[in-house]
Specification:
InterPro entries: At4g00755-like, F-box-like_dom_sf, F-box_dom
Domain F-box: 15-54
Helix content: 10-25%
Number of helices: 6
Distance between the termini: 79 Å
Shape: elongated
Low-confidence stretches: 73-78
Order of helices and strands: HHHHHHEEEEEEEEEEEE
CATH topology of the largest domain: Jelly Rolls
Pfam families: F-box-like (PF12937)
CATH architecture of the largest domain: Sandwich
Number of strands: 12
CATH superfamily of the largest domain: Galactose-binding domain-like
Protein name: F-box domain-containing protein
Organism: Linum tenue
Mean pLDDT: 76
Largest sheet: 6 strands, antiparallel
Number of domains: 2
Length: 264
């Protein structure tokens, strides 16, 4: 019978970790853990699925723990072996992060914004409501479709638009924003902000069910913001869609994206 050697036994811990941390495809990590029990044990106990997931989607480092509803791990006092409970928990974490990473990589490409929640101000409501920003065309029927604020005395004070995501979890890789060109005014002026910034966070109180109408009041203390982008300059002379590339940003569960517009 042919004798087979496991090269895991020939390499030290640091070398193995350095090799496996070079993997950038979750499918490869699953294949590694399927080779043998010793390989799977190494992948699971060192949390490599979690590390790969966080490397690909850094916003997930906020996750404290994983719960698998289909399994019920007994309390340590009931099981009588803390090592058993630890191994069970590591196995749950491994499966959860492997599934999460694979799912996030294969999400269908579509619009992430579900509905408009509020604007810091609206000039002529409802004709210039923030809800119009969800319409990609500048006209709906025979009417122009755009949002307009009441304006600020100081250009440093931003206007804010708050939205709700269309799904429980979204991966944002690109944000598109287009200034409005007032084709119905003389000279067809373009109303563009000087800078735009994006924030993402979650409401402190669950938001259940659709909202009837967007409002002009949305206190900041109702939300916890977990991500803030740098400021992006907006072109002042072209009414075209600006494509803002983001690193793969995961927005999980009840997250509200906010657009901050500064300057006139």
């Amino acid at each position: 019978m042919e004798s087979r050697m496991d090269f895991f036994n020939w390499l030290d811990y640091d070398a193995l970790m350095k090799i496996l941390l070079c993997l950038d495809d979750p499918a490869d990590l699953v294949r590694v853990s399927s080779v043998s029990r010793s390989w799977r044990h190494f992948v699971v106990t060192n949390g490599l699925s979690r590390q790969l997931c966080i490397k690909m989607f850094p916003t997930l480092q906020r996750l404290d723990h994983v719960v698998e509803p289909s399994r019920c791990v007994k309390d340590i006092t009931e099981v009588g072996c803390s090592r058993f409970v630890e191994d069970e928990n590591l196995g749950v974490e491994h499966r959860a992060f492997a599934f999460l990473t694979r799912s996030c990589k294969t999400l269908p490409l579509r619009e992430c914004i579900g509905e408009a929640i509020s604007a810091s101000s609206t000039d002529n409501y409802p004709d210039e409501s923030v809800r119009n920003t969800l319409e990609p065309h500048e006209r709906v029927g025979r009417r122009p479709s755009y949002w307009s604020s009441k304006g600020q005395n100081k250009s440093a004070v931003p206007e804010t638009l708050v939205y709700k995501l269309a799904s429980d979890i979204c991966v944002v890789s690109e944000i598109n924003i287009k200034p409005f060109q007032a084709y119905f005014q003389w000279g067809s002026p373009i109303y563009s902000a000087k800078f735009v910034r994006f924030r993402c966070g979650h409401p402190n109180v669950p938001m259940d069910g659709p909202m009837s109408e967007p409002c002009d009041v949305c206190p900041a203390e109702k939300f916890t913001w977990t991500y803030t982008s740098p400021e992006f300059p907006m072109a002042q002379f072209f009414s075209r869609t600006k494509h803002l590339k983001q690193s793969q940003l995961i927005l999980p569960l009840q997250v509200c994206p906010v657009v901050l517009i500064r300057g006139e």
